[in-house]
Amino acid sequence: SVAVNLRPEAEQKVVFITARVHPGETPSSFVCQGIIDFLVSQHPIAKVLRDHLIFKIAPMLNPDGVYLGNYRCSLMGFDLNRHWANPSPWAHPTLHGVKQLVIEMYNNPKINLEFYIDIHAHSTMMNGFMYGNIFEDEERFQRQAVFPKLLCQNAEDFSYSSTSFNRDAVKAGTGRRFLGGLLNDTSYCYTLEVSFYSYILDGPTTAVPYTEEAYMKLGRNVARTFLDYYRLNSLVERPLAPTPKTR
Prior knowledge:
Cofactor: Zn(2+)
Strand content: 15-25%
Number of helices: 8
Strand order of the largest sheet: 2-1-3-6-4-5
Order of helices and strands: EHHEHHEEHHEHEEEH
Protein name: CBPC6 carboxypeptidase
Largest sheet: 6 strands, mixed
GO molecular function: metallocarboxypeptidase activity; zinc ion binding
Helix content: 25-40%
Distance between the termini: 29 Å
CATH class: Alpha Beta
Number of domains: 1
Oligomer: single chain
Number of strands: 8
CATH topology: Aminopeptidase
């Protein structure tokens, strides 16, 4: 059957995910891989998500930096995650392309860009956690906290206590900050961070080293959290799918 949101006259709800803007942050690729693998699987939750949402994923925003083995910069020596405000098609082509697509969707009345998530890895913090934006509107600020709280329930390695909302000047050129300022108040923009090395379970003394599989599991749990979010907001009827835990 044709997905509800793919009817020509229906509003399309889009989730946009990007990763690996900093080439040294390899865990972000495994998290993104977990999201992709889950979404294209035959898992009943994945089928429901495909029926109701459109996922657009740019899994590697800095391919030249990855190829060169750079830690943070592109071939041109730019930290791409500081150039979202005015990306050059010549110097920052991946950002330019993604930004043009985002603006195109934003200007299309039939498309609602609901989520933007940029996946990174963190060299000093443990666990997975998120950065969000600060808004003057208290109700919008509270709504923004819903997705990370739901993710915390699904993923044992995700920490809501490490999740923070900021508007530091140094972060102004990041995807999360720029798009958070561009998009309307029904859109949620986050940076998803995951530790390079470990996560903590059952108190501060038990650090569990991350593996490639654990990173991909976090990705799967990010994907499944969209069903919880949209069930909460009643886009998806509750009986549509069973909710076995993804491990």
